[in-house]
């Protein structure tokens, strides 16, 4: 039986691994190769060494885009996870104990559907909808609700990136409410019951029981949201003024990659940006898993 196990595993994994190597690993290797060229996307390939990375180092738009990505990297996971945790707690535990079982607030099943609804919409559709919500004239939904002169939400450098962040949070919260709800569903009710008998309030239950027992799920959510913060391409490309404006106020690295590859015919430089984004994302994931590592809490 032992001797027959390994051929079975190899046979089962051979096709998926081959497809992954062909379409993912090979693409990464080719990107690393193209980052050392001045290729325009068509025609012959000319190797120029590290010139693209030197150019990137002196590119003010790159540093501005990186700063915007870092702002999203800090705020998107923090805000999304906090809101999702509170909502999930209310939907699963916030109603208190009834019949010896912790339950969610009234109507929690309905709220789960409402919170998850944004996940059913394509990100491009979400961007178009909120483009109208934040429209700078009186036809914009937000300006229509506010008194006074219309606010130039997406055309003002002070508000543009915040609008993008708000939409990213709105779109992501529902998924993490469901994720955290699933995690809370696996917490034995006896733990909540024992804490309640010891006089724990709902706030104590949240911070001293729920969050520690969900820490591994929160850790994964933080990594996923960080990766989303490094992307944000679709929203910025569709919602922002002049794709990354006004005056570069919403530009992100993924948008720079797209514009250099397809608008400016600088595929080599776009590949160099892609390599930098790859290592930034990898470094973030590794550091997050390292810094947030805790001993598992036994249930």
Automatic annotation (TrEMBL):
<feature type="transmembrane region" description="Helical">
    <location>
        <begin position="205"/>
        <end position="230"/>
    </location>
</feature>
<dbReference type="GO" id="GO:0005886">
    <property type="term" value="C:plasma membrane"/>
</dbReference>
<dbReference type="InterPro" id="IPR035906">
    <property type="entry name" value="MetI-like_sf"/>
</dbReference>
<dbReference type="InterPro" id="IPR000515">
    <property type="entry name" value="MetI-like"/>
</dbReference>
<keyword id="KW-0813">Transport</keyword>
<feature type="transmembrane region" description="Helical">
    <location>
        <begin position="159"/>
        <end position="184"/>
    </location>
</feature>
<dbReference type="GO" id="GO:0055085">
    <property type="term" value="P:transmembrane transport"/>
</dbReference>
<feature type="transmembrane region" description="Helical">
    <location>
        <begin position="113"/>
        <end position="134"/>
    </location>
</feature>
<dbReference type="Pfam" id="PF00528">
    <property type="entry name" value="BPD_transp_1"/>
</dbReference>
<feature type="domain" description="ABC transmembrane type-1">
    <location>
        <begin position="66"/>
        <end position="288"/>
    </location>
</feature>
<keyword id="KW-0812">Transmembrane</keyword>
<keyword id="KW-0472">Membrane</keyword>
<keyword id="KW-1003">Cell membrane</keyword>
<feature type="transmembrane region" description="Helical">
    <location>
        <begin position="269"/>
        <end position="289"/>
    </location>
</feature>
<dbReference type="InterPro" id="IPR051393">
    <property type="entry name" value="ABC_transporter_permease"/>
</dbReference>
<keyword id="KW-1133">Transmembrane helix</keyword>
<protein>
    <submittedName>
        <fullName>N-acetylglucosamine transport system permease protein</fullName>
    </submittedName>
</protein>
<feature type="transmembrane region" description="Helical">
    <location>
        <begin position="70"/>
        <end position="93"/>
    </location>
</feature>
<comment type="similarity">
    <text>Belongs to the binding-protein-dependent transport system permease family.</text>
</comment>
<feature type="transmembrane region" description="Helical">
    <location>
        <begin position="7"/>
        <end position="29"/>
    </location>
</feature>
